[in-house]
């Protein structure tokens, strides 16, 4: 089977294991705190809904500036590794400051130092990975990138479970110390990783995608919908069912399915094209958001997680590869652009639910509408492409 051979080739890629482990550690570092961060700000520090939103929005805005700025210059730098090494150390220090916050100002300051430097981590890790795989195993570079993204998800969901149990053992302070440990692991692993420089990687743009502004906008809208879920679902679940512990378990349900769907989505995209797969997966998200909006049943929240796994797998794995292939000769910019799109979507997503008063399931009317809009845009792109293929001149008949 192709997948078995590809997995064997992936496992034997020389020098990539430390990079893969670093991605896993980074996933743990982000996953431990992610589902309970907003609840921590609200319940432990006593911030209002608007204050929580403003902290996330300000932090993200600065993170976006850092991400795209680093992406623009990183392709001119022979070695990228010092960028995420320095950033992970800054994040580590920032978390130590954040865990001692007791007001809006101190929480904002800690969050800025803990999160803004991460704009120098994600995109550069994927750019380093693409250079590494393109040099060592060019025949499986696309699926290898998806598996690298899958490794990040494995780490993230491991972090979710660790965070839930750390909360039981030591409340939010335990969760924050776990966050520190995750970034410390990333820092150490990056120090020992031997990077393959951009110049050593193949420069051919074979297998690239044509630039499509409409598709980038569609991906932005899809990411915006996902961002609304990411920030507000923990708050809605806590408000509706009365326990911050539930959210890590709800998210962890999708872990196994997401890991499976990322691989399947990668092969489907290779066979049928990225755009149709992204469009079809969006319908799964629509079903999930409507369930959140209209159901007050906790089992229903768990049952729709596998559906949402399919959407997230495609958005993060297939979508990332699709954007990167638009800029094959600029791996750092392509990877950072995808992260920047996600960040821009998150910034928009943080603000839109403020139009709805309180923390009610009605918030999910908004991502439902965004999914419909994105599907319409992707449909336009696919119809135009189909018409373009039908009007391609046939030699000997036209002209």
Topology:
Layout: H1 2-11, H2 17-31, H3 37-44, H4 49-74, H5 82-98, H6 104-115, H7 122-136, H8 141-192, H9 213-241, H10 246-272, H11 274-294, H12 298-303, H13 305-325, H14 331-351, H15 365-390
Helix pairs in contact: 2-8, 4-6, 4-14, 5-6, 5-8, 7-8, 7-14, 8-10, 8-13, 9-13, 9-14, 9-15, 10-11, 10-13, 11-13, 11-15, 13-14
3D structure, described in words:
The protein contains 15 helices and no strands. By secondary structure, the protein is mainly alpha-helical. α8 crosses α13 and α10 packs across α13. The protein has a single domain, classed as Growth Hormone, Chain: A (Up-down Bundle). It is globular and about 55 Å long.
Can you give me a brief rundown of this structure?
By secondary structure, the chain is an all-alpha fold.
From the structure above, extract its key features:
single chain, 399 residues, mainly alpha, Growth Hormone, Chain: A, 77% helix, globular, disordered C terminus
Number of helices: 15
**CATH level-four homologous superfamily name:** MFS general substrate transporter like domains
CATH topology: Growth Hormone, Chain: A
Question: Could you say which structural class the secondary elements and strand pairing correspond to?
Answer: mainly alpha
The level of helicity is over 70%
CATH domain class: Mainly Alpha
Shape field: globular
**Largest sheet features:** none
Give a count of the beta strands, DSSP E runs of length 2 or more. 0
Order of helices and strands: HHHHHHHHHHHHHHH
First and last CA, distance: 46 Å
Mean pLDDT: 82
Q: Spans with pLDDT under 50 lasting ≥5 residues? A: 200-205, 394-399
Gyration radius (Cα, Å) is: 21 Å
Fraction of residues in β-strands: under 5%
CATH architecture: Up-down Bundle
* Total tally of structural domains: 1
